Amino acid sequence: MTTSTPSAASSVADRRADGGRVPQTLLLLGASGDLAARLLLPGLGRLVGGGAQPGLRLVGSGAEDWDDERWRRRVAESFAMVGADGPAETEVVRAARYVPADVTREEDLRRLLATCHGQLVIFFALPPTVTARAAAALTRVGLPPGTRLMLEKPFGTDEVSARSLNDILAGLVPEDQVHRIDHFLGKSTVVNILGLRFANRIFEPVLNAAHVACVDIVFDETLGLEGRAGYYDGAGALVDMVQSHLLQILALMAMDAPPTLDARDLRGRKAQVLRATRVWDGDPARWSRRARYTAGEVGGRRLPAYADEPGIEATRGTETLAEVVLGVDTWRWAGVPFRLRSGKALAGTRKEAVVTFKQPPRVPTGLTGLEQPDRLRIGFGPDRLGLDVNINGPGNPLELDQVHLTADFGPGGLPPYGEVLRGAFDGDPTLSVRGDTAEECWRIVGPVLEAWRAGAVPLQEYPAGSHGPGDSLLACPPGDARWR
Ligand code: BG6
Questions:
Q1: Range list of β-strands (E), 185-238
Q2: Considering the entire predicted model, what is its pTM?
Q3: Residue 369: which pLDDT band, with cuts at 50, 70 and 90?
Q4: Within a 10 A sphere around the Cβ of 467, how many other Cβ atoms?
């Protein structure tokens, strides 16, 4: 079965369209970096091309001593990656300005702000420590009223630094003007979890501990380091993926229904369920795994060992695969393990949340062959919904067999970065991470990081192109006693 479903992400966005708007300036700090070129500017190009931001001015700033022409070429190249070359996009490129600056210095920031007009949106595409210093300097400089701030992940480097960054930001603008970016919240399939759960009668009544054996949230990639040593070696898979993206998915999968999808209701529900989330049994040494890839071949491409990649400090022991089992201490989910895993340079791509259901209370004697549990699958690329169900197989009707029903989701109207940028331009923080939630996500992974630092969990190895270390915590039924 293959059908198309409309994107919930676009309906959220449509609802917040506010008609006439003052011209806006996007001030991009860290403009010469990789994130801007690969993700942010292409997202902006698509947004502008859709006609949503008339009169937008783009000011880039970075440590590189570029001029306007160099910057315009960079913007045009990134726009071209997504075919954003219409009149609106060309006008943004033509008017784009670049100001070389040390964004942690007050006089540079003053100079920068003087080039901006109208409603200001500042995007910090910077490492967390530089973001904190730039934000602190801005508190001394002052911001035009109504300024919105966008901050790329990771937000801080632990719970304490996230709290202190939140304190600095609170001195700059009100919380609703702070957009902590998690681009997974701009993915239409991720937002579609809301539609799936709360706009159907058939799933929600069984999404609880009475019926669910476990929930897996998996993001396995074939990509390796891809030249991102500078950032990745200081982060690792747990911080890069689990602390941020996968916990956001967990929150949407596990939260109770919000009365509305307004920022206050939706973010309140997410915060509530994350506050109840902790490492399974409070035992990170038992319920987490870390590993890194050695040399191997992925999809015909030879990859060096992670430790031999240029720019990697092998003794740091950064993991490229992380697994952690979490419990959600609520009435709905008590006793159901949520298993989160993400790894790089693996044999295949697997990006999905899978709900594995318990065995039916009784299968009539005479029906044979029940080997697999029912599963609900939400795929994040390819974007699809799947149901694995047991039915009578061909041939002998009393012999059970499993079939897989799938429905492909229509693509979101905008790429994820376009979607989160739109949220900031519209002044709608619904799809951004609230301050307390950013701290909470560090609180959840904190014990795991501590156990790893203390050497309580060995750093395993797996060849690039393999399925990861053998003793994965994602031991799925039928091996899993919970299903039985
Ligand atoms: C990024 C991580 O945030 O998300 C990357 O830093 C990861 O390591 C990426 O590959 C995955 O997101 P997407 O949108 O490319 O699937």
A1: 212-220
A2: 0.93
A3: confident
A4: 14
- Ligand 1 centre to CA of 399 (Å) is 43
Work out the number of other CB atoms within 10 angstroms of the CB of residue 332.
16
Q: Percent of the chain scored above 90 by pLDDT?
A: 84
Q: What is the pLDDT of residues 419-441, one digit of tens each?
A: 999 999 999 999 999 999 999 99
| Neighbour-count burial for 311-331, b at 16+ CB within 10 Å, e otherwise | ebeeeeebbbbbbbbbbbebe
Which residues of the chain does CATH 3.30.360.10 include? 185-424+432-463
Alpha helices (H) along 241-383: 247-254, 263-275
CATH topology of domain 8-181: Rossmann fold (3.40.50)
Query: How many whole angstroms separate alpha carbon 92 and alpha carbon 14?
Result: 23
CATH class, range 185-424+432-463: alpha beta
User: Could you tell which of 40, 240, 341 is best to mutate to test the pocket of ligand 1, judged by most ligand atoms within 8 Å of the CB?
Assistant: 240
* In the chain, ranges of CATH 3.40.50.720 domains: 8-181
Q: Which residues line ligand 1 (CB under 6 A)?
A: 221, 223, 240, 381, 416
Per-residue tokens: 116: 């901006």
